Design the sequence.
């Protein structure tokens, strides 16, 4: 099949095939569609009115991507005594509409989470739920689980109450716009001029997040940057790949969610019931991390230390911000993946090495992750004084399966990024690019091109390449259907080749 351009490549078909290959159901069954269609919002909400706090008048807002409609959480802050900042995070009550054992619940449990392939999003829940009934969208009165915590002057937190409440989102804000405004790089989002007090509310949230981040970094939390590109498409054709830039707006959500998840874990633990924790184990390949640091003439201790690793990463980000994302990717691979594991009363938690904390779970994105739905059911049982809705066997099985689904969804998303990158480079075989070595092992040597930001495998000239080394490479071949991009190292004085006309 000719691949002189990307117009004849069906990216959606490739994405659906990848979903099935890794065990996902890309479509909802007729039974799920019918079950959701028959949901009576008024009836379900009326049954849940008992013991709800009425917080709909608070200045709740959300910050998310511009195209996100599956809004899982809202935020609200207020000044407290002794320079404390009191934070409330409202989490969508998905369990209200997706009871345990329902057809919709079975589908969500099987897929484990929403999968984002760039060209198409495969939601965990049908759109009538995730973008409407269980979405904390603006102007809609919703029932939510509210998690409270106080951010102290030094950035530590005092965990507070968890309860059910009525809430209403007053403003859906966008990461890029809020981030640019907070950093003084752009105008205030238009909605800030329309809602009294919203500007001050966001400034307070930013202050609280700044405290939280500073404290976490002091404790040894790792600041890493992602190399996950996002495809820009026009009429089904990839026209660009962009690297999303983190901003102060992302830091607000990131730090608030970490604190909220810790508060949830603390509350469940005090109720003396089993739960599921999110962990990143102490890295087995710590010698590999020591070796990476040594290549930058820095020494790490023989025993794993997130605090010392954090110091090393901070120094490297300051010294070379351009290549820091590549270093981040290398460290992430050496750290190992995140996992879900049960947490039992009386047993010490495994902890999260990357966050430098021991009490962590996933509870703040129930529209997008199934483990968050499980945790939500545990929280509601604690609040109402009911027994744990899951047996130990169920929690063990769910933890293992959600770990598998998390890893598999990342494989689908990673594969599709490679496909989209290959499509973007179609027709450019023979061109030369500047790049940086991102991986060098028995599995192969990989280089990320500087522009466009795509990664390929070095099939010629990979000898003695070092991670972090800047190199000049030539695109020798590609296969968009398999996501293969082949590169060859070239000499600095080599003449560029003409663009290939190969079909």
Sequence:
């Amino acid at each position: 099949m000719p691949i002189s351009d990307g117009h004849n490549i069906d990216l959606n078909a490739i994405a659906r095939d990848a979903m099935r290959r890794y065990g996902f159901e890309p479509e909802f069954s007729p039974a799920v569609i019918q079950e959701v269609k028959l949901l009576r919002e008024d009836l379900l909400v009326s049954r849940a009115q008992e013991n709800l706090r009425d917080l709909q008048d608070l200045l709740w807002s959300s910050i998310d991507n511009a195209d996100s409609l599956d809004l899982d959480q809202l935020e609200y802050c207020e000044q407290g005594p002794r320079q404390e900042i009191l934070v409330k995070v409202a989490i969508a009550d998905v369990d209200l509409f997706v009871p345990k054992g329902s057809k919709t619940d079975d589908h969500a449990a099987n897929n484990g989470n929403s999968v984002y392939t760039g060209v198409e999003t495969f939601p965990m829940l049908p759109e009538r739920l995730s973008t409407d009934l269980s979405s904390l969208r603006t102007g809609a009165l919703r029932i939510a689980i509210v998690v409270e915590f106080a951010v102290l002057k030094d950035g530590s937190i005092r965990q507070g109450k968890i309860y059910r409440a009525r809430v209403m989102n007053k403003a859906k804000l966008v990461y890029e716009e809020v981030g640019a405004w907070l950093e003084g790089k752009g105008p205030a989002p238009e909605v800030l001029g329309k809602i009294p007090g919203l500007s001050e509310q966001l400034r307070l949230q930013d202050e609280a997040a700044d405290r939280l981040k500073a404290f976490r970094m002091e404790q040894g939390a790792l600041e890493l940057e992602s190399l996950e590109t996002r495809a820009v498409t026009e009429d089904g054709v990839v026209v660009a790949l962009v690297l999303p830039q983190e901003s102060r707006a992302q830091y607000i959500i990131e730090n608030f969610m970490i604190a909220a998840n810790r508060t949830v874990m603390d509350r469940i633990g005090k109720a003396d019931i089993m739960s599921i924790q999110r962990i990143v184990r102490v890295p087995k390949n710590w010698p590999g991390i020591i070796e990476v640091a040594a290549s930058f003439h820095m020494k790490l201790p023989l025993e794993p230390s997130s605090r010392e690793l954090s110091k090393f990463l901070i120094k490297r980000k300051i010294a070379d911000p351009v290549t820091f994302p590549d270093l981040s990717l290398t460290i992430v691979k050496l750290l190992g993946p995140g996992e879900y594991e049960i947490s039992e009363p009386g047993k010490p938690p495994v902890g999260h090495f990357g966050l430098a904390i021991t009490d962590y779970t996933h509870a703040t994105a129930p529209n997008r992750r199934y483990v968050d739905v499980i945790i939500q059911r545990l929280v509601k049982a604690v609040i109402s004084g009911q027994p744990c809705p899951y047996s130990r066997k169920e929690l063990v099985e769910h933890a293992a399966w959600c770990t598998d689904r998390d890893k598999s969804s990342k494989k689908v998303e990673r594969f599709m990024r490679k496909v989209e990158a290959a499509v973007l480079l179609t027709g450019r075989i023979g061109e030369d690019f500047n790049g940086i070595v991102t991986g060098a092992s028995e599995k192969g040597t990989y280089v990320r091109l500087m522009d466009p930001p795509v990664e390929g495998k070095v099939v010629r000239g990979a000898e003695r390449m070092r991670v972090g080394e800047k190199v000049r490479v030539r695109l020798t071949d590609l296969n968009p259907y398999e996501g293969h991009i082949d590169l060859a190292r070239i000499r600095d004085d080599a003449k560029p080749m003409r663009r290939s006309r190969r079909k």
In short: The first strand starts at residue 53 and ends at 54.
